[in-house]
Write a structure and sequence with these properties.
Blueprint lengths: L20 E2 L2 E2 L3 H4 L8 H18 L3 H27 L16
Antiparallel strand pairs: 1-2
Helix pairs in contact: 2-3
Length: about 100
């Protein structure tokens, strides 16, 4: 790395917002709850978020009620998705995932 002139290093981060709406504005997908690129959950979270938010807006007469329900419904799913990969990355070296198929030699 010390001898190359085009080495690049960056950090990987996640967005974890305490609230996904304020006033008449709500955010969804990566703007609200970006999963780590290592999780493979970005598209799933974005589609689920858009679907739930649209459904709640159609169901509630007041946007504030829809935003509250959107977050109540989706927050557990987002939390699990954001934490799932982080737990796997912290596994000590040499330890296999409990559901991994047996190794064949």
């Amino acid at each position: 790395m010390d001898t190359v002139d085009d080495f690049f290093l960056d950090s990987v981060t996640q967005v974890r917002m305490p609230s996904w709406s304020r006033g008449r504005i709500a955010v969804t997908g990566d703007a609200a709850y970006c999963a780590s690129p290592l999780s493979g959950m970005g598209t799933s979270l974005a589609l689920a978020g858009a679907y739930v938010l649209a459904g709640e807006l159609a169901h509630h007469a007041h946007h504030g009620d829809a935003f509250t329900r959107y977050e109540r419904v989706l927050r557990p799913y987002v939390t699990r998705a954001q934490h799932s990969r982080a737990r796997r990355l912290r596994r000590p070296p040499g330890r296999r995932h409990p559901r991994a198929p047996p190794r064949t030699v």
